[in-house]
Fold these 3 entries.
Entry 1:
Amino acid sequence: MNVSNVKAFVWTLPNPELLSERDEHDHSNCIFTKQLDNDEAEIITKTFDNRRGDFYAYQKRMEEKKRIFEELEKEIKPNTSIEYIYFCVTDRDCYDMRKEVSRSNKSVIERGIDTWMKKTNTPMDIWKDISGGTQLPHVLKIKLTDALTKRPGYLYIFDLLHPRFLSPTLETKRGSVIYSSFQAIRHLVDLVISTNNTYDIHTAYNNEVWSSLLVPFLCGFGKLLVLGYLNECPKKHKVETLMALDFIAKMRCIKSKSLPNNAILKVFDTETIADNERKYKESQVTIQEMKTYVDEILVEKSARETYIEQSWSVNQ
């Protein structure tokens, strides 16, 4: 078993050609400044214009995602079975991007996201499906099954897009964001990295789609890589930017375990188990009856052979 910490990286928006000063202000109190030798603060970049900045961040995310699919396309073995699911997930409901159908959070939690898996031919076929992007927080799950060993492997891409640390206001709630779901995720992270005894604390994570999807990784039962995209001069969101950096630092404290065989967790169906046990007992009775029948045939065969030998001796 390989044990390592969660890896986390922060991407900033440093391209001055794409970023422009939206509201001129004193940058001395901004977060991303650094002290030079002459003790003068150098502003790394200016605050970005909403349209240009959002587009740059979107473009950056899509470039990173495309690289993932390009690497999969090169490394994947021939005849590997490929399946995927592409869902948008908000605090209220889910949306199947492939079928363009809304799903309730309750149905996704009860049935599991794998219910709507679809087979495809190559990783780039998946990229063609998702390259249009979305303004909703989303999850992409890819299942790769080796043709020879039939052993599956999974790749998840979680994009929380614009999660809110503070309760949304009229200004910050514009667009599709997640708040209550993200609070549950933050609570789970705090429990995982806590040095206090938390074994007696019950956390109902399975009533949130995001929590139920992320809990295996937040608890360290899978490799997790965290990428954060931040504005380098967040005038209006300074508090949330600091909270985001603190949250990313916490996630780096999570220990990840890499096992040779993934544990497949299934919900036990008592009726199915009882039915399987009944069928097993019936099969054992049938096998015993067949053995008795075969024994009777062998006894009869032996008796006939003995009779034939005795008859042959008398005739001689």
Entry 2:
Amino acid sequence: MSFLPFAAASANPEAVPSIALVFMGISLALIIAVPIALFFYIKKRFMLNPRALLNGVLVFLAAGMLLPQLASIGLAAIPGLGDTLRSNNVLAGIVMSLVLAAFQMAGLFIGAKVLMKNAGFGSYVFFGLGFTAIEAFMQTATNLFSYLSLAMSVNQVGATQLIQDLKESNPEQAEEGAKALYDFIGAPAVNYLSYGLDSTMKVIFIICVAVLLFAALSKIGPKYMAALALGFVFLYNVPNLLFQAGLYSSIWVAEALYLVVTAVTVFYTYKFVKENMPQELENLTRKINKYAPPQKKFPKFNIPKD
């Protein structure tokens, strides 16, 4: 989840501050680099399972994008409810946050149960990585790249010229567009760092959830393990729910709540794996000696029997 880092600006500058561009670049680098780095890290410690990775991608495309969009269309089409949601942005935000959380929870559980039958620990790690990596690339990185492109356009031609172009092409929305543009220019630059931090925490969090689902479905953990894992997913969506409800306006309050939920999930997952799956933990954390000479494989000879 990513909050729009817009805040009402007190002035109307003509350009986006350079530090904002720097923070956008740092976040974009984190969003792209962290999943790729984790992929190679995990690949060195477990056998690569492209199918598990693809399963995670497919589950997110269905449960994290397609089905929530269809649900929003369906809710908007319901007489009375659709008009209420369109006229109440706070209520619409709360409802869609709940819908997204429900589909993510259901998608992760059903995807793991149906697509990951008899899969091992490493495959579940790849499943979680596929789910969260495609989210980082398709949603968070895409949104941030659009902001970066807009900022570069503003700095190249100036806000006044962009607004003038908007007045000529779409005069009905020129006033609203001008306000949004100046809010964008005047937004606190540091807010753009939240994109990278949020994406990094989400990658680690979902991998932990996948590990807990592995423990539940392979019956290594207690019966309530699957419910606990999905409960963590719901808790991770609570900051967005509270934000949509208007309980706070600072994105850093949300990031602090994300950090708490992620830390609790990581701690619980680490403790459980250490106590119940020590070999998997050793494989995940062991050091790889890249300078070690390759092991020689000797041919097998079949000795004929008398």
Entry 3:
Amino acid sequence: MADGCGPANGDDLWERADELEARGDREAARSLYLEAMAEGVTGAGVEYGDALLRWGEDPAEAERLFRASMASGEDWNGDERLAELLRSTGRVDEAEEVLRSGLARGHTYLARLLGHVLSDDRSGCRAEAESWYRTALGEGDPYAANDLAAFLSDDPERRDEARGLLVQAYLAGDDLAAGNLGTMAWEDGDLAEGRRWLRIAAEEGQHEKLLSLAELEDEAGDDAACATYLRRAIGHGVAGAHTAYARYLVDRDEEPSVVEAALQVAVDAADEEADFAYAAWLEERERLPEALGRYRRAAEDGDRDAYLPMARVLSSLGREDEAERYLRAGLEGGDPSCAVAYARFLAGHGRHAEIPALAERAAELDAAEEEIAEIRALAVS
């Protein structure tokens, strides 16, 4: 066992695993989980399943571990973890079944998650979703007030009610509430109030809100404040901060060498959307082969938005067969913009008979009405 530390009962075991993981010693953390499982420590399988998902490893094994915990009757929220995994992989019906079954057994900690499923993944279920959020609130779920407020804020007539819930959540110690209050005020056009709450959130440790503050100041026209918040976000290691700073430089027409250096820093830091941002800049400067390579890297990292610009670049390079392949991939990945782009592609190649099916697919993907209308028009042109 790494560091001579064997498994122990209680929270200290998971704290030890977290420490090992934070130090970059994933294998030592794995050994701790596996030994704990072998010794029958309660919750070890569920905690290891969670770790596997955090590490981007073996979701099938994580699912098996969650189900095994549930089958054993172990009281360790295996059903909650399983439902989250099923939902994240598009198996919403199974997730809902797990949640309803658990709630029927009195597992009220699942109420808020069922509210999410009904509000986000189902249509026509808002009344039931609200009832489950309120159940969670009544059961003392510490995140219920915040999540109910987010749900209510979608209704313009209930935003004041949502705001009151967020204040209640903030006073109760919910670490997400201040940021959400800031975002809501900003959305409602009150930049001063939005700025105030976002600053509170950032000062209380929600450093990702520094990017929101940068965006707010950009909207307000304060370049200096925008840049300051971006640099602070970089200093705190906020995901996406390097990319956001590079885009800030692009938007202000900085010298190409400065912009490219910033984009390279973002890529080297493996920052969110860095390859896509670099590719878009290269495409704009007509460095198409380089742009194509960056878009490929973005797609390989799971950025489905990269398929459409890849197809565009390939078409510009005269590689029409490859362009079509990526338009299809984008459609399969759920990008509605690929539907109208593919319709234009087919029309340009005289393949009008293939276009009507794209209108149906675009509707399935909730494409804009004008895009669907354009696809239908291209089918008969």
